[in-house]
């Protein structure tokens, strides 16, 4: 089971299951490379509303048992009921996985408003509470938002809900991606003041193409500092230069986070082992 060393900056990565079944070997190849970096854990995302949930468990099992790296399987409240949850937790345990990232999830395009509204577990905190109630000893992580969750009315309210989520049993928090470290530091200050004392891992997304920035910002709502938009304007037309510039941007973010003593960095790898390895190389 995952244990986070608060005295040393941790490093973890995130991968997502490929859409096509045939591409599963591609992700195994990526994981074989990522394991050489000895991350504290590798997490695997869960398809919106539970689509692809079997692939999440299969890939997490590969990480845990073949790569011998601690695996975290993501799961969402959307598309979940008590029976599905019980079966999923049983399946994960059977595969040797002891860590989950419990999320609310967003409404998939294929789900009706009514079905989304009538979900059994409203928030990630309800899912966490139920996982605890089901009496297994899973380590539970949860998400947090340095620029507040887009649906929250205020920062104070979002932090209050985050605190409640931790009180229900989240043992660590993984942040949404951010591109400006000062945003993260002021968030950390506020949540520590509010009494949230679990480790918080900083979510870093290396931007290696102009298109990727557009998609990531659309999904996350993270703000884009001038330096990053200038970088895209300058290098966006040249794939090699853009990749180098994106890696350099992420390295500078991580070096500054390290200097400021953050608990850990969680890299959104986009299943690109070469980018993650280049970041590691540069950090040496
Ligand atoms: P919650 O913590 O439930 O919060 C959602 C909103 O409800 C917030 O505005 C919050 O303030 C509010 N809220 C919370 N509790 C209460 C309460 N008790 N009363 C009233 N309001 C409340 N999505 C996927 O589909 N699959 C993934 O694998 C996935 N991985 C992710 C990994 C990370 C690290 C992050 C940051 C996000 C990930 N997401 C994933 C996206 C996530 O599902 C969405 O951001 C979703 O909108 C919120 O999920 P949450 O768990 O943070 O929600």
Keywords:
single chain; 284 residues; alpha/beta; TIM Barrel; 8-stranded parallel β-barrel; globular; binds flavin-adenine dinucleotide
How does this model look, in words?
This protein is an alpha/beta fold. It has a single domain, classed as TIM Barrel, CATH 3.20.20. 46% of the residues lie in helices and 15% in strands. It has 11 helices and 8 strands. It has helices at 24-34, 53-66, 82-94, 113-117, 124-133, 155-167, 181-193, 210-220, 226-235, 239-259, 273-283; strands spanning 10-15, 41-44, 71-76, 99-103, 139-144, 172-177, 200-204, 264-268. Helix 1 runs parallel beside helix 11, helix 5 (124-133) packs parallel to helix 6 (155-167) and helix 10 (239-259) packs across helix 11. The chain is globular, with a radius of gyration of 18 Å. The structure holds flavin-adenine dinucleotide (FAD). Flavin-adenine dinucleotide (FAD) binds next to strand 3, helix 5, helix 6 and strand 6. Residues 45-46, 48, 74, 76, 103-106, 123-125, 143, 149, 151-152, 158, 161, 164-165, 174, 176, 203 line the site of flavin-adenine dinucleotide.
């Amino acid at each position: 089971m995952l244990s986070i060393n608060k005295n040393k900056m941790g490093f973890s990565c995130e991968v997502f299951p490929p859409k096509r079944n045939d591409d599963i070997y591609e992700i195994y190849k990526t994981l074989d490379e990522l394991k050489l970096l000895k991350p504290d854990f590798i997490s695997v995302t869960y398809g919106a509303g539970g689509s692809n949930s079997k692939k999440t468990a299969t890939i997490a099992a590969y990480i845990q048992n073949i790569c011998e790296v601690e695996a975290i399987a993501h799961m969402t409240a959307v598309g979940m009921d008590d029976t599905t949850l019980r079966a999923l937790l049983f399946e994960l345990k059977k595969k040797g996985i002891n860590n989950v990232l419990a999320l609310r999830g967003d409404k998939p395009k294929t789900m009706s408003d009514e079905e989304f509204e009538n979900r059994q577990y409203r928030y990630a905190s309800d899912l966490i509470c139920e996982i605890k109630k089901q009496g297994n000893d899973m380590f539970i992580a949860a998400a947090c938002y340095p620029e507040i969750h887009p649906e929250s009315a205020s920062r104070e309210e979002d932090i209050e809900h985050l605190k409640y989520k931790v009180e229900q049993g989240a043992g660590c928090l993984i942040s949404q991606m951010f591109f400006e470290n000062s945003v993260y530091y002021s968030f950390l200050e506020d949540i520590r003041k509010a009494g949230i004392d679990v480790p918080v891992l900083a979510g870093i997304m290396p931007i290696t193409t102009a298109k990727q920035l557009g998609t990531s910002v659309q999904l996350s709502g993270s703000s884009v500092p001038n330096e990053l938009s200038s970088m895209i304007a300058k290098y966006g037309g040249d794939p090699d230069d853009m990749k180098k510039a994106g890696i350099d941007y992420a390295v500078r973010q991580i070096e500054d986070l390290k200097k400021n003593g953050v608990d850990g960095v969680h890299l959104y790898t986009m299943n690109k082992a070469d980018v993650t390895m280049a970041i590691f190389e540069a950090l040496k």
